[in-house]
């Protein structure tokens, strides 16, 4: 009886694992271009159940037990930057990952409900932009002992249809980063990967209590900014 | 007409021709041993009422211009059937079968590696004895078919999902009696599955239906009431 119970339990575990949508075949089509609108040829476009990159540009470990990564479909762009392929679906979100020799990997997060009616996942255009390593270091020159929050807004390689208000047709590539500035903390800096050309916006409250908003132009592969407070 | 359909038709014709030739030989042999003055026509003996259990191995092949015919490779499978003979050779039965398939084109079938097609169906048929050794039969089955699809573990992600639909199956067989309760048979069959797969307009009608040609070899255990 013990062995029957073990076999039954193993069967149940196997049958209750992560699954792809039954009886479903979608079709994805898009055109991949660079920041100048020039077609990107030979870019590998993959649909998956998880992003290959995370929102803050760290490579995610694939196939970990906690985060199953199913490759749902893939294709390669032609000389016009166009790619079309059959794709499976998994749940409420599809991640379109774009890999190219000349650009860092980009990810577009698609809300499946937006295309549920006909399963025609048509993305008019995906723009690949070069990526800059941006470092912002906060230096205490005022002598304040207060700690405060600083927020940065920038454009990253992760673009999404999901917003705080729901789902939108256009893709929002704006990312946010947060850091607590504390004189007792050694690491008062933040490193982010930002696509360019773009603008990075920093917001924080200074020692006098005033809101400080500063825009930084990102135009090169590397930027180091020192912010005094 | 596709090569596979022509092949199946040829196999069926060969099976029936062999059976008819054997019947002819038996009749001739009987005639030659019967006294000229006492020739009597052969008396047809219908199949007795009773039940039968079948076990078979099966080679199935997806055919036709659809996602299975264009995107999957057939393989070996097995099945079980149980039928009851109710009246002069007519029978009712139920069947279960498993067939293994592999994906030959992920761009047509989807990004997975293999599938197991599981059929369950009820059928109505008729069996006729040709002579003391050979019988032929044909039945029409209606039921359900599910393809249990699996991705490859390392490259595709080890995901799984199903494609399912209604099944219509035509089965024929030629059987040979080894003993009064044990038969061996060869059985070509054709099935069509009406899938309930939702697909994008760009994929056309590729995922609406799929057809499969099968050839079974098996044993039948019979018992009369």
Tell me what the structure shows.
The complex is a heterodimer of chains A (229) and B (225). By secondary structure, chain A is mainly β. Helices cover 6% and strands 55% of the residues of chain A. Chain A contains 1 helix and 14 strands; from the N terminus they run H-E-E-E-E-E-E-E-E-E-E-E-E-E-E. In chain A, a hairpin with a 2-residue loop joins strand 5 and strand 6. Chain A is elongated, with a radius of gyration of 22 Å. The model of chain A is unreliable at 1-17 and 55-65 (pLDDT under 50). Chain B is an alpha+beta fold. Chain B is built from 3 helices and 10 strands. In chain B, strands 1-3-4-5-6-7-8-10 form an 8-stranded antiparallel β-barrel. The chains are: A mainly beta (229), B alpha+beta (225). Chain A binds chain B through residues 17-27, 29, 48-49, 63, 68-74, 84-88, 90, 118-121, and chain B through 67, 106-108, 110-112, 151, 154-164, 195-203, 207.
Note the topology.
The complex is a heterodimer of chains A (229) and B (225).
Chain A: H1 2-15, E1 24-34, E2 44-48, E3 71-76, E4 82-87, E5 93-100, E6 103-111, E7 120-128, E8 131-139, E9 148-163, E10 166-181, E11 189-195, E12 198-205, E13 211-218, E14 222-228
Parallel strand pairs in A: 1-7, 6-9, 8-14
Antiparallel strand pairs in A: 1-4, 2-3, 2-5, 5-6, 8-11, 9-10, 9-12, 12-13
Chain B: H1 3-33, E1 50-63, H2 67-71, E2 72-73, E3 75-87, E4 90-103, H3 106-109, E5 114-129, E6 134-150, E7 160-177, E8 182-195, E9 198-199, E10 209-224
Antiparallel strand pairs in B: 1-3, 1-10, 2-4, 3-4, 4-5, 5-6, 6-7, 7-8, 8-10
Radius of gyration of chain A: 22 Å
**Major sheet characteristics of chain B:** 8 strands, antiparallel, barrel
Instruction: Tell the overall outline of chain A.
Output: elongated
E-strand count of chain A: 14
Number of helices of chain B: 3
- Runs of chain A in which pLDDT lies below 50 for 5 or more consecutive residues are 1-17, 55-65
Q: Round the mean pLDDT of chain A to the nearest integer and report it.
A: 83
Instruction: Label the overall shape of chain B.
Output: elongated
Uncertain parts of chain B: 17-38
Largest sheet of chain A: 8 strands, mixed
Number of helices of chain A: 1
Structural class of chain B: alpha+beta
Broad structural category of chain A: mainly beta
The greatest interface here is: A-B, 32 and 29 residues
How helix-rich are the residues of chain B, as a percent range?
10-25%
């Amino acid at each position: 009886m013990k062995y029957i119970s073990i076999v039954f339990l193993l069967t149940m575990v196997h049958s209750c694992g992560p699954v792809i949508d039954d009886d479903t075949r979608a079709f994805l089509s898009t055109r991949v271009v660079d920041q100048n609108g020039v077609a990107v040829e030979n870019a590998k476009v993959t649909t998956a159940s998880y992003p290959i990159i995370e929102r803050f540009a760290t490579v995610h470990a694939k196939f970990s037990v906690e985060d199953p990564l199913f490759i749902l479909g893939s294709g390669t762009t032609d000389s016009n930057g166009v790619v079309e392929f059959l794709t499976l679906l998994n749940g409420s979100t599809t991640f379109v990952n774009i890999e190219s020799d000349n650009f860092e990997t980009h990810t577009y997060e698609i809300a499946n409900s937006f295309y549920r009616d006909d399963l025609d996942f048509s993305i008019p255009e995906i723009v690949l932009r070069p990526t800059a390593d941006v470092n912002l270091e906060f230096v205490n020159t005022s002598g304040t002992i207060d700690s405060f929050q600083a927020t940065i807004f920038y454009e990253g390689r992760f673009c999404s249809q999901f917003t705080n208000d729901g789902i939108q047709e256009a893709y929002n590539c704006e990312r946010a980063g947060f850091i607590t500035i504390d004189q007792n903390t050694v690491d008062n800096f933040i490193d982010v990967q930002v696509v360019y050309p773009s603008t990075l916006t920093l917001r924080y409250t200074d020692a006098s209590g005033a809101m400080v908003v500063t825009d930084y132009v990102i135009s090169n592969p590397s930027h180091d900014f020192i912010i005094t407070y | 007409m596709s090569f596979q359909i022509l092949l199946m038709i040829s196999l069926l014709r060969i099976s029936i021709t062999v059976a008819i030739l054997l019947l002819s030989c038996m009749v001739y042999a009987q005639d030659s041993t019967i006294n000229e003055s006492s020739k009597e026509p052969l008396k047809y003996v219908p199949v007795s009422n009773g039940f039968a259990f079948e076990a078979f191995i099966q080679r199935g092949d997806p055919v036709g211009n659809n996602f299975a015919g264009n995107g999957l490779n057939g393989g070996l499978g097995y099945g079980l059937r149980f039928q009851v003979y109710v009246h002069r050779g007519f029978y009712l039965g139920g069947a279960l079968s498993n067939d293994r398939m592999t994906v030959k084109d992920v761009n047509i079938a989807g990004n997975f590696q293999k599938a197991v097609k599981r059929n369950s169906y009820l059928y109505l048929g008729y069996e006729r004895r040709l002579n003391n050794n050979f019988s032929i039969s044909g039945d029409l089955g209606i039921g359900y078919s599910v393809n249990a699809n699996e991705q490859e573990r390392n490259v595709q992600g080890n995901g799984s999902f199903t494609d399912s639909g209604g099944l219509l199956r035509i089965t024929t067989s030629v059987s040979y009696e080894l003993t009064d309760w044990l038969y061996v048979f060869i059985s070509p069959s054709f099935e069509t599955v009406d899938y309930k797969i939702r697909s994008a307009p760009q994929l056309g009608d590729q995922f609406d239906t799929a057809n499969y040609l099968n050839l079974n070899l098996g044993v039948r255990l019979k018992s009369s009431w």
